């Protein structure tokens, strides 16, 4: 049985425990290309998995985040009844074994799943550990509290948008791509996704009933679109965009608020806004009342020539 076959079988049995971006189906049906998985198996039982994405930049091969795949790192199955010291020792051993399965690359740069806390084995293997942040909203509070906890200007935007916009939930990947392309044009950035990548994501939502695409229209004019994906406990704001002509209509806030309400109605525990290091985006996401949550980013540099190129580019 290949590692991918092991991963598929493992995902079927551990589906409730795996975050959406750690599931075989996500990698197989959405990422599709240029990925592999490290697997630890003992006595016919899977002890650990680590799916990873391989990317090429000129002559260099790297392990990086797959597109719109916010977390990628090891997932361990722990023996029952472990003492704390035994648990930490077990993590060191398993992480070391997984790292040995990774190919030699010029760079590894990954955001690990939020449950990951022990980076010592990675530090001992020349990884640099950094922290990035997301905002995590606890959905256990009642809707009145969630509304009150929104920043005042976000509530104003929602009320404004409710008066003139029509909200639609539909699997229209072309509408999402239109809104996203407009957003990247506003930021003077190239559109980063391969052809049909968003189409694969929206098809995945529909096939597995694990996500929604929210659209806001004024009559037939698209204002904004956001894609939300679910796992067993959490809704994630995966991606979104607004048309340049309507970026101040409040549509994005209206869609986000509806997605929060739907996630709560679905019985989920959290809404993850997938925070941004861009100050203006961070400020906007902060306005929905989530708590700041650290996410560990691990980086290993293996090519001096790639580092020289990065330094030359600033």
Lay out the secondary structure.
Layout: H1 3-13, H2 24-31, E1 35-42, E2 45-57, E3 60-64, E4 75-76, H3 84-101, E5 107-111, H4 120-123, E6 128-138, H5 143-149, H6 152-164, E7 166-169, H7 173-186, H8 197-208, E8 211-218, E9 221-230, E10 234-242, H9 251-265, E11 270-272, H10 279-286, E12 291-301, H11 304-313
Helix pairs in contact: 2-8, 6-9, 7-8
What can you tell me about this protein's structure?
With 314 residues, the protein is an alpha+beta fold. The chain folds into 2 domains: 3-133 and 296-313, Gcn5-related N-acetyltransferase (GNAT) (Aminopeptidase); 140-268, Gcn5-related N-acetyltransferase (GNAT) (Aminopeptidase, 3-Layer(aba) Sandwich). It is 38% helix and 28% strand. The chain contains 11 helices and 12 strands. β9 (221-230) and β10 form a beta hairpin. α2 runs antiparallel to α8 (197-208), α6 crosses α9 and α7 crosses α8. The relative contact order is 0.15. The mean pLDDT is 94.
Which descriptors apply to this entry?
12 strands; Aminopeptidase; globular; twelve-stranded mixed beta sheet; 11 helices; 28% strand; 314 residues; single chain; alpha+beta
Task: Give me the strand/helix succession.
Answer: HHEEEEHEHEHHEHHEEEHEHEH
Mean pLDDT: 94
Shape: globular
CATH superfamily of the largest domain: Gcn5-related N-acetyltransferase (GNAT)
Low-confidence stretches: none
């Amino acid at each position: 049985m290949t590692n991918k076959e092991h991963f598929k079988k493992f995902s079927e049995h551990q589906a409730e425990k795996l975050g959406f971006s750690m599931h075989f189906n996500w990698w197989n049906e959405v990422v599709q290309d240029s990925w592999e998985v490290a697997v630890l198996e003992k006595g016919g039982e899977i002890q650990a998995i680590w799916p990873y994405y391989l990317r090429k930049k000129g002559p260099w091969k790297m392990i990086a985040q797959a597109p719109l795949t916010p977390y990628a790192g090891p997932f361990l199955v722990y023996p029952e009844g472990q003492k704390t010291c035994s648990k930490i020792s077990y993590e060191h051993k398993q992480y070391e074994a997984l790292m040995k399965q990774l190919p030699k690359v010029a760079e590894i740069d990954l955001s690990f799943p939020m449950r990951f806390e022990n980076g010592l084995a990675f530090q001992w293997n020349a990884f640099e550990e950094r922290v990035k942040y997301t905002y995590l909203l606890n959905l256990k509070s009642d809707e009145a509290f969630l509304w009150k906890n929104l920043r005042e200007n976000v509530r104003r935007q929602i009320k404004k948008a409710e008066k003139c916009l029509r909200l639609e939930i539909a699997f229209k990947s072309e509408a999402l791509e239109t809104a996203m392309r407009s957003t990247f044009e506003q930021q003077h950035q190239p559109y980063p996704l391969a052809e049909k990548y968003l189409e694969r994501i929206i098809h995945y939502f529909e096939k597995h009933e694990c996500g929604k695409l929210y659209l806001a229209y004024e009559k037939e004019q698209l204002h904004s679109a956001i894609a939300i994906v679910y796992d067993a406990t959490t809704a994630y704001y995966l991606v979104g965009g607004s048309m340049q002509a309507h970026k101040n209509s409040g549509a994005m806030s209206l869609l986000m608020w509806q997605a929060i309400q739907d996630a709560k109605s679905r019985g989920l525990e959290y809404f993850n806004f997938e925070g941004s290091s861009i100050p203006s985006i961070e400020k906007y996401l902060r306005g929905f009342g989530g708590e700041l949550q650290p996410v560990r980013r691990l980086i290993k540099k293996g090519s001096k020539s790639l580092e020289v190129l990065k330094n030359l580019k600033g």
